[in-house]
Known about the structure:
The model is unreliable at 70-76 (pLDDT under 50). The radius of gyration is 20 Å and the shape is elongated. It is an all-alpha fold. It has 7 helices and no strands. The protein starts with a helix and ends in a 13-residue tail after the last helix. The chain binds zinc ion. Zinc ion binds at residues 79, 81-82, 85, 91, 96. The site of zinc ion (ZN) has 6 residues, from loops. Residues 67-103 form the Reverse transcriptase zinc-binding domain. Pfam families: zf-RVT. It comes from Brassica cretica.
Amino acid sequence: MSWNWRCILRLRDLVSRFLISDVNNGWTTSFWFDNWNPLGPLVKVFGRDGTRRLRIHLNASVADACNEHAWGMQIQTSCCICSTQPETRDHLMLSCPYTEVLWSESRRRFRDTVPVFTNWPDLVLWTSSSSNAAPSNLRMMVVQALFYNIWKQRNNMLHNQALVPPYGNIPGD
Ligand SMILES: [Zn+2]
């Protein structure tokens, strides 16, 4: 992963924690110069070079930095795994490219045809339905295992900037 991207992931976490604990000061606290996070003033951590590489203006407040990168609390943050889409439940659990690989691998292992889910109600309906080859409790178990893994990888990406490739997540045939 690139230097910028690793930094942004780390900073995004810091910024969102700060904004959750101290929303009002987000508008007056200097992103680069104030001591608002555990690393201390960020200009000392990243240097003048870092301020340019991260493309956050020297005069930016924490809230500005957050808006510039759509890191906000009201604003949807982007998906921790693919970073190309807003992180919604449906994106993360159904349509993220990473998730799609897990789904297609799981789908192959069912003796029944499993539809490609594009929305939550379809998934819920399928999970609560039953067939001889794919009883409801089996469907439920698979969905739970998938969600558990996706969430674990999402957090792994958020906190450690590491991701287990989707194939490494599925036991062999
Ligand atoms: Zn994604």
